[in-house]
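Notes to self after the Tuesday call (sharing in case useful).
The group wants a holo model before anyone commits to mutagenesis around the pocket. I volunteered. Ligand is zinc ion. Logging inputs and output together so the record is complete.
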Amino acid sequence: MRFHRTVTAICSALLSMTAHPVYATPEQALVPGGIAIVNVENYTPGTRITFDSRKTTIFKQGDSWYALAGIPLKAKSGEYSFEIKQPDGTTRIRKIDIKHKKYQEQRLTIKNKRKVNPNLEDMARISKERVRKREAKNHWSETYPDVDFIWPVSGQISSIFGLRRFFNEQERNPHSGLDIAAPEGTDIQVTADGTVIETGDFFFSGNMVYVDHGQGLISLYAHLSRIDVKPGDVLRRGDILGAVGQTGRVTGAHLHFAVLANGVLVDPRYFLSSEQPAAQFTESGKNQAGSPDGGSNYADSQ
Ligand SMILES: [Zn+2]
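Result:
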């Protein structure tokens, strides 16, 4: 993939000069929270590819086909394999090595204590929402995804993926996405072509949108101030799906952007260009990108 990445970087540089979105191709990272990618020679539809027993995402880039698998944050280091089973029954094994990665800690203070220690009523709501979230996370469609993701908003990264999270000194799940600080009301663009599969107001995530890109590749957008789409809507990369807000368990306005590969949450940065798009300006001329008043600790619960 390195070759593709170099080509993409050059294309991105050219594109950014003309103020087009900055594309990227996924970058392999053989660590917990990363992604594994293998080239699949002579791919034919009907080939079944699994990684650690989970079905992988299959995508095409140029004339080549690839299988992509999310590596769970809890994965232990060691040898893993892709199993490529062709329609005629022939099976090939491709081995990879997953290395250890240490994630840092983050400590946040949440003023609304119910968001850290929910009451019984909240718990009932959370368990119902968990079912909806699980269904959205494991959604599968056969469409081959476009993996050239764009940044959904521009802004300061206020929290990275994988941090061990302590809310009011109590440990909770690690951070499962990328937090991008931006003023409330900033439009959010869908990262790639896809279909909306779930929207709603969730206890921790606030207003949230899930988009299916195909083959188990799903993006989600949380803490929105408004949602502009509904399940079933077909989106083109760059379409606006809602706006940045501070709903749910947050310390300030930002977008929590997450990517799932076959039900596994992975670091979205492996799908994004290291370069963000140029700042966007509203009609009033206010800079929507960056976050001069955003603070660096605007983060959330996810
Ligand atoms: Zn977040």
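Two things stood out.
The mean pLDDT is 85.
Helices lie at 2-17, 120-137.
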